[in-house]
């Protein structure tokens, strides 16, 4: 027998999210721009019931801001000047992925945000980050021409990060990263190609409806798996492989133990931000085990 279920929004969960965004803005010294706009949109969505595309998708988009804040809060002093890059990412850029225009270079702050997010994940996983976007950590000596340089098992490893806007641009961006990591001046230094697939793995203006967060996570993993055949697969041995990231907006359902006046349980239908990181190692690399051990550390942090 089907049970009738009433729908409601859980305002408390939104309040906590808004508070986290406010702390992030205070920490970065931001009083206007993209991050502040998310606060207003989420509040209007919950309190006033506004449901424009911006209102519905703001929760997912704003999670990037909170993650960067939480991952970087205790590390920002180690990288002189990185706070200005973070501030710019919080202030600038399109509100939604749907509003980005690569031809006008308006997506640069959001591209930089992916680098900052990934570097933050590495630091949370207790992996030593030596340089980020040309800024070398205090007390560290290394080159500064990779998006991220990390140290693992006594080896310096470069990451080149790409955020293609379309699936058609995926292979081109991957080859671009590959060329950067195999330049003659690198002398075989180990490298990883990191790709944010968020911009193209879902239809614009859509979110994923799922019975649970677990179902949504598996759906995202399947989307990322479909990307693999479109990537270049033959590498020099110094390339450890790919790190694929994806984040998509979702709405997941939770059944509340609280009953409505009708005597039926409430269904808590709330926006979610579903994100996942997958790795594809280069089987021809003699250092593949290093990469897999890095990935295992990343999984504990994200």
For this entry, give a set of tags.
9 strands, 9-stranded mixed sheet, alpha/beta, 302 residues, disordered N terminus
Short structural description:
This protein is of the alpha/beta class and 302 residues long. The protein is 40% helix and 24% strand.
Mean pLDDT: 87
What is the makeup of the main sheet?
A: 9 strands, mixed
Radius of gyration: 20 Å
What string gives the helices and strands in order?
EHHHHHEEEEHEEHEEH
Low-confidence stretches: 1-10
Tally the structural domains: 1
Q: Give the overall shape.
A: globular
Structural class comes to alpha/beta
Question: Percent helix among the residues?
Answer: 40-55%
The helix tally amounts to 8
Secondary structure tally: strands: 9
Distance between the termini: 39 Å
Amount of beta strand: 15-25%
What does this protein structure show overall?
This protein has 302 residues and is of the alpha/beta class. The chain has one domain (6-301). It is 40% helix and 24% strand. It is built from eight helices and nine strands. The chain has helices spanning 11-28, 34-48, 53-72, 82-91, 108-124, 170-181, 213-227, 288-301; strands at residues 6-8, 128-132, 135-136, 148-152, 155-162, 190-196, 208-210, 239-259, 265-281. Strands 1, 2, 3, 4, 5, 6, 7, 8 and 9 form a nine-stranded mixed beta sheet that branches. Helix 1 runs antiparallel to helix 2 (34-48), helix 3 (53-72) crosses helix 5 and helix 4 packs across helix 5. It starts with 5 loop residues before the first strand and ends with a helix. 36% of the residues are buried.
């Amino acid at each position: 027998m089907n049970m009738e279920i009433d729908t409601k929004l859980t305002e408390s969960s939104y309040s906590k999210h808004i508070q986290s965004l406010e702390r992030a803005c205070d920490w970065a010294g931001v009083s206007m721009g993209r991050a502040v706009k998310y606060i207003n949109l989420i509040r209007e969505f919950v309190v006033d019931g506004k449901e424009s595309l911006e209102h519905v998708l703001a929760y997912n988009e704003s999670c990037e801001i909170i993650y960067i804040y939480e991952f970087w809060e205790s590390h920002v002093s180690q990288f002189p000047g990185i706070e200005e890059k973070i501030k710019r990412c919080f202030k600038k850029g399109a509100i939604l992925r749907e509003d980005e225009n690569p031809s006008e270079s308006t997506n640069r702050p959001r591209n930089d945000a992916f680098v900052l997010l990934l570097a933050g994940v590495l630091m949370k996983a207790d992996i030593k980050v030596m340089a980020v976007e040309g800024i070398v950590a205090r007390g560290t000596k290394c080159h500064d021409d990779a998006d991220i340089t990390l140290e693992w098992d006594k080896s310096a490893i470069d990451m080149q990060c790409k955020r293609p806007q379309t699936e058609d641009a995926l292979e081109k961006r991957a080859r671009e990263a590959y060329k950067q990591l195999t330049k003659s001046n690198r002398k075989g230094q180990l490298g990883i190609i990191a790709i944010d697939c968020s911009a193209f793995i879902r239809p614009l203006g859509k979110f994923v409806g799922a019975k649970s967060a677990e179902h949504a996570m598996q759906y995202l993993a399947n989307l990322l798996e479909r990307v693999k055949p479109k990537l270049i697969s033959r590498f020099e041995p110094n390339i450890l492989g790919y790190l694929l990231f994806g984040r998509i907006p979702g709405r997941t359902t939770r059944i509340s133990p609280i009953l409505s006046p009708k005597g039926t349980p409430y269904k808590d239908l709330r926006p979610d931000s579903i994100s996942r990181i997958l790795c594809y190692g280069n089987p021809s690399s003699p250092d593949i085990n290093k990469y897999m051990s890095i990935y295992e550390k990343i999984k504990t942090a994200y």
